[in-house]
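Residues and backbone
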Amino acid sequence: ISDMRDEARRDLRFPYPAELKSDATLEQQEEHQRLEDTFFDRRNEAIKEDTQKLIEQRQVELTSFNRDRIEQIYEDVVINNAAKEAMMTTFNEMMTYLATYNDPKLKKRSFTSYSTFRNANTEVKRQLIEGYLRLEVGGDNLKK
């Protein structure tokens, strides 16, 4: 379902309300403000509706398949999800390894190599990764 939600989100054309002209009436301004205030709710509802349509299409498609084909599709989905999870784990580990330093000038790495990081205590690694993922890093804070 998350893949279908991503597809619906990607394919949705739901533009933000255009700027009003400077001579807009009070009613137009109020309507524009209402559209801006409800934009994200309306967009999420449109994504939800499109996702539901995709789910219904997929259900119709799957009912025409025999059991072997459905099992193959299920196996492919499980393998793809496991691969995606492994990829994200490795990516998050690498990102955290590259961003972990022992000094304020960001010159001395906390780990001598990526393999040292991977072999570090699991709990320490988990805390570092979770902490790094919670950071809000702006462009000004990145190492040059």
